[in-house]
Every structure is written in C-alpha cells, then in structure tokens.
C-alpha cells in the first residue's frame, strides 16, 4: 500500500518522540495501551497504577511527562498534577479522561496541565499530545 503524498496528515509510523513518560491509570488495560502507543513512537515509558505509586516512582526516577487519568481510586489527576509540580514544576502533565467537558479542560489548563486527552483516543492523538508536552518541558528547561 502506497502512502498518498497529497494527503498532508502525518502517518503514525513516521512520528517519533524521545523522552521519559510516566503513564498513570488504575485501569491496567488503558495504561498498557497508552504505554504501547508511546513506546512504539520511541518514548521510554513507565507505568503506575495509582497516584501514590506515581509519586513514589517520581522520587526514584524523574520523568519528562506524566500522562495521568483524571479519575482514580486513590486520588484524581488534578491533585496528582499539583503534587507532581510540588516535586518538580518542569514536569509536563497531561490529563486523560472519558469524562471530558469544556469546564474540566479549562480547570486542567488553569492548574497547569500541559495537555488533555479525551478517551477514547487514537495512537496519533496520543503521540502528538505527548510530543507537545515533551516540547513544553524542554522549553521550560531552556533546551529549545
């Protein structure tokens, strides 16, 4: 199958990212799916199944980006975002949820989220949002 060069949309296989990403979701299926999407694009991905596990992980090994579910049993993505920024304000945080609405997206932005993923999402969207968050982190650190 040939790629139509007149189509300007990127091919998911062509999009590559590099950086460390921590995916936080208490649904193992979702966490693994997101991890696979990002790993296939070249990211170094770790998983955490709760906010407390994510924070513990970040004390052991930093991440460039954290992609976290909004609704989890032990916490929520907004509280986790605040806790992450208390540890390292340069870490980019992306909130993902199936409960998306404009008010939630606005709140996420207001408290410092670097992106928002509405479930369900495809691989291209996931990688593009992660790439944008990685670039925001690099910008914060003065690397670009």
Give a description of the structure:
By secondary structure, the protein is of the alpha/beta class. The protein has a single domain (17-140), classed as Rossmann fold, CATH 3.40.50.2300. Helix content is 42%, strand content 17%. It contains five helices and five strands, in the order E-H-E-H-E-H-E-H-E-H. Strands 2-1-3-4-5 form a five-stranded parallel β-sheet, sandwiched between helices. Helix 2 runs parallel beside helix 3. The longest helix is centred in the C-terminal third of the chain and has 18 residues, at 123-140.
SSE layout and pairings?
Blueprint: E1 20-24, H1 28-40, E2 44-48, H2 51-60, E3 65-69, H3 77-87, E4 92-97, H4 102-110, E5 115-118, H5 123-140
Parallel strand pairs: 1-2, 1-3, 3-4, 4-5
């Amino acid at each position: 199958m040939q790629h139509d060069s007149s189509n300007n949309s990127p091919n998911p296989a062509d999009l590559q990212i590099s950086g460390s990403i921590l995916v936080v979701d208490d649904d193992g299926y979702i966490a693994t799916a997101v991890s696979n999407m990002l790993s296939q694009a070249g990211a170094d991905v770790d998983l955490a199944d709760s906010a407390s596990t994510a924070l513990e992980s970040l004390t052991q090994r930093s991440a460039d980006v954290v992609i976290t579910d909004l609704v989890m049993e032990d916490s929520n993505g907004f509280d986790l975002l605040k806790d992450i920024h208390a540890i390292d304000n340069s870490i980019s945080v992306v909130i993902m949820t199936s409960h998306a609405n404009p008010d939630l997206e606005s709140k996420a932005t207001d408290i410092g989220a670097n992106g928002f993923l509405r479930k369900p999402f495809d691989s291209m969207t996931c990688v593009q949002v992660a790439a944008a968050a990685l670039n925001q982190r690099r910008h914060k650190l003065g690397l670009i």
